[in-house]
Amino acid sequence: MSKPAQSQIAILVVEDDPGDLGLIQAYLRLAGLRRGGDRGSVATASTLVDGAALAVSVAPDVVLLDLSLPDSAGLATVQVMSSVVPDVPVIVLTGQDDHQLAEAALEAGAQDYLVKGQFDHDALGRAIRHALVRQKLESRLRLFEAALNSAANGILVTDVNSRIEWVNPAFTRMTGLTLDEVVGRTTSEMLNSGKQDAAFYQRMWETILDGRVWSGELINRRKDGSLYDEALTISPVTDVNGRIRHFVAIKQDISERKAAEERVQHLAHHDQLTDLPNRVLLTDRLFQALAQARRERSTLALMFLDLDQFKPVNDTLGHDVGDLLLKEVALRLQNCVPRESDTISRLGGDEFVILLAQIDKAVDAVLVGGKILAALNRPFSIGPHQIVVSASIGIAVYPQHGEDANSLLKNADLAMYLAKKAGRNCYRFFREITDTARA
Question: Would residue 423 count as lying in a domain?
């Protein structure tokens, strides 16, 4: 089976001198320019206008362009042709052996510069092949650059000493820092928030200098001084000898994700009405407080609080008023228990639990209980209503009334029923009672 025909190398020659044109065409035949074994096709034009029109219609792979044409001369000729076919390599052919002109032509868009009379078919063939290879590489580089520039994540390239060489637009959007502002500066100068310790950066550097990829999360600082959460991946880039020459960092702003995670965690551990810790968070803090009390042989108290006559408020004024009352009760309890080591929790309904960690003696719980009763006895203004409630408080003390979380919660609850039985609006410590005594 014969192989399918492959595309030819299409060459456009823009040359107004018939002698030079004939020589160039002969050189092209001798050069044996082929792609997949097929001889290339050649189109010709004698003016820049006709050459530009042909370039658009035939879409050549390469343009051989004389600098001196009837309708154009000099660098403007290169600039016009390069603008018409920006992705096609242009090789300048000229009779002027001028290094400065050659450099200017390359800056204007030419891929190569050949002086007439100083090249043969081999040199012309090499120039065309090299131009095609360079153009292909440049096209790929432009594609890669466009991809990097359009990436949603910030991309940062540094040398081996962490000096910044390039950043993409997403980096600027994320940090507020432009390419001009960061090039030549180190990452520690421009991006250090001070929120990570030396050990954090030591581990990171040990990883990437060992040639491995490092990934992690950190807090970084924007140009305006604001902080943001960032997911960062740093990859070493090595040369042909395996030596690290650059680092490429990919940065993602995860502030919104972290904030969402924190909101979920908060909702999972706090009462939605009062924003106080719920049973889950109370239990966790109680376990921690008990562990510390055992280690330090100290005391803690658990207070179980139930509002007196709360049900009539709900029944007569409605649940909306009842909810507002519970929120006001929560605020007053927080004012009565200001220590950060203590916890006020709402278990549900009108039941609250107060954990007093690291108290010196049981009488400290009495002082807090007295403050709570006095605070709740003051009338609550809920809209047009003046509501008066009180509370019954049960107190269980570690280790006298229980040595584990379940025992303390249960016994503080039992003590609260003792307070209810004693006439409400008071506190009682736990003592052994029967189930009938709770009725």
Answer: yes
Q: Of 415 and 2, which is predicted with more confidence?
A: 415
Clarify whether 323 is annotated catalytic.
Answer: no
Q: Are 28 and 142 in a shared domain?
A: yes
Q: Pairing relation of β-strands 244-253 and 41-45?
A: unpaired
138 falls within a domain: yes
Mean pLDDT of 276-285: 96
Q: Would you state the structure tokens that stand for residue 161, as one six-digit string?
A: 């000493």
Q: What are 115-161's pLDDT values in tens digits?
A: 998 999 999 989 998 988 888 888 888 888 888 888 889 999 999 99
Residue 167: strand, helix, or coil: strand
Residue 317 Cα distances to 306, 314, 331, 386, angstroms: 19, 6, 21, 11
* Residue-number span of the structural domain to which 345 is assigned: 270-438
Q: How many domains does the chain have?
A: 3
- Residues of the chain with pLDDT > 90: what percent? 70
Return the CATH number at 164.
Answer: 3.30.450.20
176: which DSSP letter?
S
- Retrieve residue 185's tokens: 């500066």
Residue 437 has pLDDT above 70, yes or no: no
| Catalytic residue selected from 229, 253, 342, 350 | 350
The helix or strand, by DSSP H or E, that contains position 228, with its residue range, turns out to be strand 227-238
Sign of the four-CA dihedral 357, 362, 363, 365: positive
Domain end point (choices 106, 128, 148): 148
Q: Which tokens hold the place of 375?
A: 């605070």
- Of the given ranges (85-94, 106-115, 144-153), which has the lowest mean pLDDT? 144-153
Smallest CA-to-CA distance from 238 within 208, 207, 197 is with 208
